Amino acid sequence: MLPPLAERLRPKSLDDYIGQSHLVAPGAIIRRMIDSGNVSSFILWGPPGVGKTTLAKIIANTTECQFHTLSAVTSGVKDVREVIERCKAEAQSMFSKGRPILFIDEIHRFSKSQQDSLLGAVENGTVTLIGATTENPSFEVIRPLLSRAQVYTLKPLEAPELQILLDRAVSGDEVLRKRGVKVEETTALFRFSGGDARKLLNILDLLEQSTTIGQPMIINDKVVTERLQENPAAYDKQGEMHYDIVSAFIKSIRGSDPDAGIYWLARMIAGGEDPEFILVGGVAFGGGGQVDDAFGEGNPSFRHADFVDDVVCGVGQQQRVGVSQADVFGGEYDEPAGNELRVFAAGNHPGEPVYASVRVASPDAF
What pTM did the predictor assign? Predict the structure, then answer.
């Protein structure tokens, strides 16, 4: 059985690596580490499918250091200590060509005690730690470990980078070459991918498997939309996305951008966010903390119960919200007759990234 397309096309060197030029372009920090063979401890933070594990595997392939891998999902303190003991023996060996590297995938899933067990080995140079996480390290990684490892942020792939990946898959994968792929449109494909390279390749896998043998594999907006049906909104009620999206919502309010405010509001509601958190948290911060002003009798355009019933429940039923109702988010509109704002536009763009300028640095802000 063939491995998935994403695994078949996994880059083996930095020359084949797509994206993250701020880290791996000639002269960039991680490229310089790899070229010199002196790799410092660091944590790779970014959304799924942007190349964190691939980058770690490239380091393993190109350095002469011993390379060990642990998954925080399946490993415990005992596993960590066993690997560290092996690393100590390797570091003291006369055949050692560098400090052993320990790669921990999903490091944010390690408990405090598991992270504590790494401190001594990282501190005294027994191992070089490379961690990968989809969650904000400020939330999930203990401060003593953060002080010993630099954090590097990986970004979602942009459309030109997704195009490079698509071209490489169509021309470089043996299975797709045999299918005679015809790329007519890429808008839906890139939108459904949401900057996630793995997701784009998985979509191509799905299209290939659902195309009748002997027929050309067509890629256009209609085919992609029909085959995928729905693109679930990216949201996490407990993790980093929870704070980032409400932060974007709040900053949209403060910036008097009701369209952006409605979009982020719809993302939260579609993700199942608690309406009380949206109302009390969002309006309080958006209004500079003046909850009473927002909910008080002096503001007839805004009522707590009416807002929950008409807006929150209406969005859940994919109804429409009039532009006049957007003025509670800081906009000022003279509503034209029949002018409405389709809140569920978020359904067409469910994976838009929250850019650094509107993200929250710490959950303590809430």
Answer: 0.71
